[in-house]
Amino acid sequence: MSKVNLAVDLNGLKLQNPVTTASGTFGFGEEYQDYLDLDSLGGVMVKGTTLHPKQGNPTPRIAETKAGMLNAIGLQNPGVDYLIKEILPTIKDYDFKTIVNISGNTVKDYAKLASKLNQAGVAALEVNISCPNVKQGGLAFGTQPEMAAGVVEAVRAETDLPLITKLSPNVADITEIARAVEEAGTDVISLINTLLGMKIDIDSQKPILANQMGGLSGPAIKPVAVRMVYQVAQAVDVPLIGMGGISNAQDAIEFLLAGADAISIGTANFVNPQVSMEVLEGLEDYLVENDYDNVSEIVGNAINNSKL
Amino acid sequence: MSKVNLAVDLNGLKLQNPVTTASGTFGFGEEYQDYLDLDSLGGVMVKGTTLHPKQGNPTPRIAETKAGMLNAIGLQNPGVDYLIKEILPTIKDYDFKTIVNISGNTVKDYAKLASKLNQAGVAALEVNISCPNVKQGGLAFGTQPEMAAGVVEAVRAETDLPLITKLSPNVADITEIARAVEEAGTDVISLINTLLGMKIDIDSQKPILANQMGGLSGPAIKPVAVRMVYQVAQAVDVPLIGMGGISNAQDAIEFLLAGADAISIGTANFVNPQVSMEVLEGLEDYLVENDYDNVSEIVGNAINNSKL
Amino acid sequence: MAQQVIKEIVTQKEISPNHFKMVIRAPKIAKEAQPGQFLHLKWVNDLTGQDPLLRRPISLNSIDQAKGTITIIYRVIGRGTKLLSSLQAGDEIDLMGPLGESFSVSDSASKIAIVGGGMGIAPLLPLVNQLLDLDKQVTLLLGANTKEQLINLAEYQKLDVNLKIATRDGSCGQQGFITDLLTELSKIDYVYTCGPEIMMEKVQDWAKQEKIVGEASLEERMGCGTGACLSCVCKIKVGSKDDWQYQKTCTQGPIFPLGEVIFGE
Amino acid sequence: MAQQVIKEIVTQKEISPNHFKMVIRAPKIAKEAQPGQFLHLKWVNDLTGQDPLLRRPISLNSIDQAKGTITIIYRVIGRGTKLLSSLQAGDEIDLMGPLGESFSVSDSASKIAIVGGGMGIAPLLPLVNQLLDLDKQVTLLLGANTKEQLINLAEYQKLDVNLKIATRDGSCGQQGFITDLLTELSKIDYVYTCGPEIMMEKVQDWAKQEKIVGEASLEERMGCGTGACLSCVCKIKVGSKDDWQYQKTCTQGPIFPLGEVIFGE
Ligand SMILES: Cc1cc2nc3c(=O)[nH]c(=O)nc-3n(C[C@H](O)[C@H](O)[C@H](O)COP(=O)(O)OP(=O)(O)OC[C@H]3O[C@@H](n4cnc5c(N)ncnc54)[C@H](O)[C@@H]3O)c2cc1C
Ligand SMILES: Cc1cc2nc3c(=O)[nH]c(=O)nc-3n(C[C@H](O)[C@H](O)[C@H](O)COP(=O)(O)OP(=O)(O)OC[C@H]3O[C@@H](n4cnc5c(N)ncnc54)[C@H](O)[C@@H]3O)c2cc1C
Ligand SMILES: Cc1cc2nc3c(=O)[nH]c(=O)nc-3n(C[C@H](O)[C@H](O)[C@H](O)COP(=O)(O)O)c2cc1C
Ligand SMILES: Cc1cc2nc3c(=O)[nH]c(=O)nc-3n(C[C@H](O)[C@H](O)[C@H](O)COP(=O)(O)O)c2cc1C
Ligand code: FES
Ligand code: FES
C-alpha cells in the first residue's frame, strides 16, 4: 500500500502513476516482461506507428556519443492495421495504459491513423510531430506552429481518445508550438523528442549512421529537456509529460519540479531494463521523505520557487 | 618543422593553424600563459565584449551536467573602451590572431563596437548573435534570419576587418540563418554557441543557476554541433569555424571532416588547460599518418564520402 | 527466461594480446543458456559513470552447468571492452541474458562443418560440444590472423573433431583464408558459420552451390538487446525471390538460416 | 608560476567519517605554494570518462618543502570528491596549482585571531605555521559539528597557540557556534577567517565593529581556475559606499579583505 498518492489525471488520461516508457525505446512493453513487473507502470508509449508498414533505415542505425546516443531507426513498424489486429490484443490485459505513438507523412495520414485507432481499445494517442528521421513530414510538422496545429486538429476531429502531442526540441521557441497545439485541442503535451545530431568516423571519414543524421537522446540532452518543460509549463495549461535523459529518480523529480505532470523514460531502458521501477520507487521515497501526500504537490515547484 | 601545411586562410583571415580557443572560455589568452605556449595557437576569440562594462549575472553561474556544463555568466566584461586601452596592448605581441567577440542589445550597439574596434589592431571580429544569457538582443538576433542579417550588415558597414558571425544552435533550421548572414556579408561563420538548458536542485526545488537557464556546452553537445556544421557547410560558401564539445584531436577532426575549415575549443580548456596543444599535435599526426600535405584536404570529406 | 543480474567475476585472464577470457558465476544463466546465445553486459562501477552509455553484446563461450559458471572470450576494441578488461576476480558485472536464439541442431544431419573466423570462433565451443554429445561428425574450420588468435585451439585439439586451420601469417595451419579450405570438404549435411561478414558470405555462397543447409551467427550494433529498439536489424530474405525484411539480430537472431542472409547492406 | 601536472599520491587516509587526507608528491608546487592557495584537481583515470566533467578546487592543508609533498584534506560531498576518495597510494592525480592569492601577513600586526569553521579549517594550518614562525601571538578559534570534524586538532594542540573550540554537539570545547566565542577576544590586530558564509559574515560584522582588519577565504563554484571563465565571482565592495564589483575567487581571491565582502548574494 503506497503512502503517497501517485495517480495522475492528465486531462482525462488517468495513469496509476506518472512513470511511463517512451515511444521507440520499449517496444510494445512485452519485450521487457522478463525484466520487470509491467503491470506497475503508469503507461507505455508503444513504438511509432504509421499507416503502412515501414522497413525503416539501413544500418548502422545507432551510434554512441558522450552520455548519449544517436538513432535513425526510421520508424520501422508493421503498420497500424497489423498493430490493431496482431499486437494490441496481446498487451491489452496489462494494467499499464497503452498509448499509441502515431506518425504520418501528411495531415491525412494522421487523421486516418486516429480514426483507425479510435475504437482499438487504447488509452490515448501520442501524435509524433517531431520524428527527425523521416525525409518528408515529421520534423516539418513539429517546427511550424500552423502545421503542428493542423495535424492536431485533424486528429482531434477523428478521435475521442485523450490526445498527447509530442514536441520536437529542434526549434527556436518551443512555447510557440506548445501554444499552437494547445489551441488546436491537444489534451496533453509530451516533450522532448530527440535533438538532431551526427557522428563521424574519422577512419572511414563518413558519418557513422547510414542515414547520416539521427536523433540524440540520453543524459546528454536532459538540460535542454528540463529547460523546455520549464518554459512550456509556463506557457500552456494542459498537462505535460516530460522526457529526455531520465536515468534515475532524481532526474524524474527534476522534470516534475520543472512542471511535468508525468514523465517518460527512453534510452535508459536500454542501459537498465529495470530503470522504470527504480524511478517509481525513488520518486515515492522522495515524496514520503519530504512529507507530500500527492505527487501533484511537487509539479512545477521550481517555477514557483524561482519567482520568490 | 611541420611536415604538413596547417595554415588556413578563412576568406582573408589567415591563421597559422586551424586551432582556436572559444570566446568566454579562454579569457584574453594570458590567463593560460602558465600552461601552454600561446604563440602556437591559431587564434584566440577573447571574452564577449559589449559597448559598456557589464557586471553579468548573479552566482551560481555554472552547473555541471552529464558530459557538459551550463553557464550563465551574463557577459561580464569591462567594456570595449577598456578592452582597447588596457587589454589589447598586453596581448598584441603573441603570434596568435586576436579575435574580438562582440555582443550588443541593439543593431546600433554592434555597429558602434565594430567602428571602435576597426583600428584597434585586432585580427577579426566575431559577431555574437547567439548569446542565450542576456535578456534583450543576443538570442533573438540569432534566431531570425532578417535580424541576423541586419546585425551583420551594420557591422560590415563599419569595418574592413574579417568578419566572423557566430550562430546559435537554438533554431529549427540553422542553414537559413547561415545563408542570411552570408548574404549580409560575413566572411566566416562560426558555430555553435551553447544550447539553452537548465538544471534543478531537487533538495531546494529551485534552478541551480541564479539566472535559472544557461548555455549548455561540452562533450554532450558535440553531436548537435557536428550536425550543424555538416548542414551549414553544404548551404554556404564562406569558411566555417566549428565548435561545440571538442575535447581532443579526434573530436576536432570530426568537425573538419564535417566541413569546418578551423575549429575552436571551449569548455575543454577548463578540464585540460593544455588541450589546444594536444589537439594541434593530434591533428598533425592524423594528417601525417594519412599522407595529407595540407589540412584543407580533409575539410568536408564526410560530406563527399556520404554522397558516394 | 532472460534476466538482468549482477554477478561476480570468478577469473579474468589475458589469453593472448588484447584477448580476454572471463569466467562469471551465474548458475541460473548457466542452466538455461544454449549454444549461440549471448549476454548484454555492463561494467558495474559507480566510478565509470555513463561512458560508455550502452551495454555490450558478447557471446557465451562456455556454459558450465555443473559449476554454475559461464565464460566469455572477447577482444579489446574500444572503450567498452577496454573497461571490461580492467575488471578482476571478485568484481561485479551487470549482465542481461541468456539472449537470442540458439543454434538449431538437425536430427537428420550427421556430417557437420563449422567455419569460424577471428572472434567468431568464440561462440562455437558450446555448439561443438553439443554436436559431439549427439555423436555428430564434426569438421571444424578455424581461421585467424595468427596462431595466438585461434580461440580455444587447445580445447579443440583435445576433442574428437576434424580440425582444419588457416592463418593469415601462416603461423598455424595453411597460410591464407579459412574459406580457401572449403573445397576440401565433402559430403557435409549442415554447416554453421560465425566470423567476419566476408567470410560468412563466402560460406553462404559455397553452401548454396553445394546445396547444403546451415546457419550463420551475425553481429550488429545493439541498443536494448530485448527486441524493443530495432537498432540491430539485418536483412533477411523472406518469401519470394527478392523480398527481404529487417529482422532483429538480438531476438530473431543472432543465428539466421544460411542462404537467407543478405550480407553487406 | 602555476602549472598543470600529473603527480603521484603518497598516501590517502580516511581521517574521520567522510573526511580524507591525501598526501601528494609535488616538489615544485610545494616549493612555490603559499598559505591560502589551492589546487584544481582532476582524477586521472581513463575509466572515469568525463563525469564529472570539471575539476574540483581544494585548498592546500600542508606544504612540506623539505619532503616535496603537499597535503589536502577534504570532505566527500558529491561524485567528484567521492571519486577522489577512491584513489590510493601510487595512483596518479592531475592537478593545477598553486592557484589563487595567499593570505597576506602584516608586519605591524602581532596579535592575530584565526576563526575557522568546518571544512574551512583545512586551509589554516600553513597560515598558523607561518604566523608562528614570525613570532605572532595566535588565537585560534575552531568550530565544527563534532570533535571528529575538527580538522588538524591534534596538530594544533601541539602548537603554541591559544586554542578555543566550539562544537555543535558539545563533544569538544564549548557547545554552540564558534562565533559565540568572538566576544572573549581582546586586543586583536588582525583576523583571518575561513568557513561557512554565515560564520564569516559574523566575523566580518564583529571585526567591523571592533575596527579590526583582516581577511576571509571564500568558496565559489569554479570552472577554469585560471581567471578565464568568470564563473567564480563574488561581490566585493569597491570605492564609495555602495559600489561593488564581481571579482574572481580563483585569481583575485580566494582571500579577500574583510569588510569588503558582500556575503549571501
Ligand atoms: C551477438 C553478438 C555477439 C558478440 N560476441 C562477441 C564475443 O564473443 N567476443 C567479442 O570479442 N566480441 C563479440 N561481439 C562484438 C562486441 O560486441 C564488440 O566488439 C563490442 O561491442 C565493442 O565494444 P567497444 O566499446 O570495445 O568498441 P567501440 O567500437 O568503442 O563500440 C562502439 C559501439 O559499436 C558497437 N560495436 C562495435 N563493434 C561491434 C561489433 N562487432 N558488433 C556489434 N556491435 C559493435 C558497440 O557495442 C558500441 O555500441 C559480439 C557482438 C554481437 C552483436
Ligand atoms: C578555493 C576553494 C577551496 C576549497 N577547499 C576545500 C578543502 O580544502 N576541502 C574541502 O573539502 N572542500 C574544499 N572546497 C570545496 C570543494 O571544492 C567542494 O566540496 C567540491 O568541489 C565538491 O565536489 P563534488 O563533486 O564532491 O560535489 P558536487 O556537489 O557534486 O559538485 C557539484 C559542483 O558544485 C561545485 N561545488 C560543490 N560544493 C562546492 C563548494 N563548497 N565550493 C565550490 N564549489 C563547490 C563542484 O565543484 C561542482 O562543480 C574548496 C572550494 C574552493 C572554491
Ligand atoms: C531508438 C529510439 C527510437 C525512438 N523512436 C521513437 C518513435 O518511434 N516515436 C517517437 O515519438 N519518439 C521516438 N524516440 C524518442 C523517445 O521516445 C524520446 O522522446 C527521446 O529518446 C528522449 O528521451 P530519452 O533521452 O529518455 O531517450 C525514439 C528514441 C530512441 C532512442
Ligand atoms: C563559461 C562560458 C562563457 C562563454 N562566453 C561566451 C561569450 O562571451 N561569447 C560567445 O560568443 N560565446 C561564449 N561561450 C560559448 C563558447 O564560446 C562556445 O561557443 C560553446 O561553449 C561551445 O563550445 P564548447 O562545447 O567547446 O565549450 C561561452 C561558453 C562558456 C562555457
Ligand atoms: S538491440 Fe534493440 S531490437 Fe535488437
Ligand atoms: S573559475 Fe574561471 S574565472 Fe574563476
Automatic annotation (TrEMBL), chains A, B:
**Cellular compartment(s):** Cytoplasm
State the pathway, as annotated in the record: Pyrimidine metabolism; UMP biosynthesis via de novo pathway; orotate from (S)-dihydroorotate (NAD(+) route): step 1/1
Q: EC number(s) on record?
A: 1.3.-.-
**Swiss-Prot/TrEMBL catalytic activity:** (S)-dihydroorotate + NAD(+) = orotate + NADH + H(+); (S)-dihydroorotate + A = orotate + AH2
Asked if the Swiss-Prot or TrEMBL record annotates the protein with the keyword tRNA-binding, the reply is: no
User: Record's Pfam families?
Assistant: DHO_dh (PF01180)
Catalytic residues per the record?
A: 131
Q: Which CDD domains match?
A: DHOD_1B_like
Alphabetically ordered keywords of this record: Cytoplasm, Flavoprotein, FMN, NAD, Oxidoreductase, Pyrimidine biosynthesis
Residue ranges annotated for the Dihydroorotate dehydrogenase catalytic domain, each copy included: 6-287
- The name this protein carries in UniProt is Dihydroorotate dehydrogenase
From TrEMBL, chains C, D:
Pathway given for this chain reads:
Pyrimidine metabolism; UMP biosynthesis via de novo pathway; orotate from (S)-dihydroorotate (NAD(+) route): step 1/1
Tell me which PROSITE patterns the record gives.
FAD_FR (PS51384)
Which one GO biological process term can you cite for this protein? Answer: 'de novo' UMP biosynthetic process
In its UniProt record, a GO molecular function of this protein is:
metal ion binding
The coenzyme or cofactor needed here is:
[2Fe-2S] cluster; FAD
| Cited Gene3D superfamilies | Dihydroorotate dehydrogenase, electron transfer subunit, Nucleotide-binding domain of ferredoxin-NADP reductase (FNR) module, Translation factors
Q: Taking every annotated instance into account, which residue ranges of this chain make up the domain FAD-binding FR-type?
A: 2-105
Report if keyword Metal-binding is assigned.
yes
Q: Name one Pfam family in it.
A: FAD_binding_6
- In this chain, [2Fe-2S] cluster is annotated as bound at 224, 229, 232, 250
The record's free-text note on cofactor binding? Binds 1 [2Fe-2S] cluster per subunit.
Superkingdom to which the source organism belongs:
Bacteria
The positions annotated for binding FAD are: 56-59, 73-75, 80-81
Q: Which UniProt keywords apply?
A: 2Fe-2S, Electron transport, FAD, Flavoprotein, Iron, Iron-sulfur, Metal-binding, Pyrimidine biosynthesis, Transport
InterPro entries on file: Cbr1-like_FAD-bd_dom, Cyt_c3_hydrogenase_gsu, Dihydroorotate_DH_ele_sf, Dihydroorotate_DH_Fe-S-bd, Dihydroorotate_DHASE_ETsu, FAD-bd_FR_type, FNR_nucleotide-bd, OxRdtase_FAD/NAD-bd
> How is the subunit organization of this protein annotated in UniProt?
Heterotetramer of 2 PyrK and 2 PyrD type B subunits.
The entry's function note states:
Responsible for channeling the electrons from the oxidation of dihydroorotate from the FMN redox center in the PyrD type B subunit to the ultimate electron acceptor NAD(+).
Which family is this sequence assigned to? Answer: Belongs to the PyrK family.
Q: What is this protein called?
A: Dihydroorotate dehydrogenase B (NAD(+)), electron transfer subunit
Species, as recorded? Halobacteroides halobius (strain ATCC 35273 / DSM 5150 / MD-1)
